[in-house]
């Protein structure tokens, strides 16, 4: 594989979790040779925000474990303080990554790569919606919907991959989670998934292991949602 | 468990990898109630440095994978640059943690806890020795030896735990790695381990699962060293 110095540094920096350097290199260097590496790195930046989101959920869940003596000592305020810090990080870093995609990544993308980027932006806007309220939350949901819709449309246009494309199915999965969790519409989410699964069936194509796994998760989610369990965290990490 | 606000914040910060806050709280607050939590947090800070050391080894190992065309593009300099950054982080952070132990932790320690702290300091000095040269390396090795020796002496004085104490056996393990890898003395390391294993045998005590695991690693290391394999990375993380 031919790789430039900057791309190599970004790759190594990513492997040791030095995301500041990854962002800097992606912003400053156009000399990547290999475009798939760029997308891999942006995906990794999104994963970092996903792990902040996991931390936020972990800390929030600590609230339920506090007993009355903890409450009197003000431990709730400690939790709230950390939650605020994590929320701020999620807001700031998601903004950085979205800006990076818009200013430094999309220009190198073919349609399928653009679908990937729009899915990432949809995911990030969904995370932002989860931690905001009122009109800010509404506009984050709206933006997430728009990015997921764009991603699906672009992925559908790649006719040699659609409808069994893992990227397409992953977008269906994450978008359906938004429909269920944030738009409060499990029935709509189920119908939406079923339509995608029907297209897969009708295509008669051989599935990759990744697509098979996604279809399993989609079916599992339908079962859970039909049983009324809404708090579902499985989503697609690519 | 009764816990102070500061201790609770440190615990949550540790759980989400916010080590700056952990260091700050351990430095500024004496209000921990629970001393074992203090040690847990310092151990976690050491683990963070251990993971920097793992990153450094990963990046160094990339050098061997470079082909001639990579070399001509100057990719070696990228690796060297990242290795320098990681080495600097290891040096800076180990210094911070050792200072924290000396100024803010030892004062609350009984002898067994002091043995734990000295083992940590021995580990950190060993990491520093690995990435320094000349007289700096020699003095880091010397300091590591002194800390491990202190730890063993303190652990031996806890007669109700010695010689099957996991902390004691973990110190034997890590100190033997220093003897083999940095003092270049595998025979000495083997003799040293065998003496500790003999004391375990003669004690006729029932072993905890942790001690049993350590004894297995110690025996594995002896086998590998007897076969002349020196590059052994298994060590005790507590």
UniProtKB/TrEMBL annotation, chains A, B:
Pfam families: 14-3-3 (PF00244). It comes from the Eukaryota. Residues 4-231 form the 14-3-3 domain. SUPFAM superfamilies: 14-3-3 protein (SSF48445). The record marks 53, 126 as: Interaction with phosphoserine on interacting protein. Belongs to the 14-3-3 family. PANTHER family: 14-3-3 PROTEIN. This is 14-3-3 family protein. It comes from Cryptosporidium muris (strain RN66).
């Amino acid at each position: 594989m031919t790789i430039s110095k900057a791309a190599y540094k970004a790759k190594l920096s990513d492997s040791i979790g030095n995301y500041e350097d990854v962002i800097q290199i992606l912003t400053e260097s156009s000399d990547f040779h290999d475009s798939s590496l760029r997308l891999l790195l942006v995906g990794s930046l999104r994963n970092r925000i996903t792990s902040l989101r996991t931390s936020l959920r972990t800390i929030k869940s600590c609230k339920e474990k506090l007993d009355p003596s903890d409450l009197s000592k003000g431990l709730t305020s400690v939790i709230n303080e950390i939650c605020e810090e994590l929320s701020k990080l999620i807001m700031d870093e998601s903004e950085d990554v979205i800006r990076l995609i818009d200013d430094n990544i999309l220009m190198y993308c073919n349609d399928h790569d653009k679908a990937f980027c729009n899915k990432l932006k949809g995911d990030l806007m969904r995370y932002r919606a989860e931690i905001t309220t009122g009109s800010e939350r509404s506009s984050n949901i709206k933006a997430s919907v728009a990015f997921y819709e764009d991603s699906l449309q672009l992925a559908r246009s790649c006719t040699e991959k659609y409808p069994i494309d893992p990227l397409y199915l992953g977008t269906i999965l994450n978008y359906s989670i938004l429909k269920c969790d944030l738009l409060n519409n499990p029935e709509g989410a189920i119908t939406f998934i079923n339509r995608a699964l029907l297209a897969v069936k009708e295509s008669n194509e051989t599935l990759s292991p990744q697509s098979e796994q996604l279809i399993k998760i989609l079916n599992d989610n339908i079962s859970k949602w039909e049983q009324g369990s809404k708090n579902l965290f499985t989503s697609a990490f690519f």
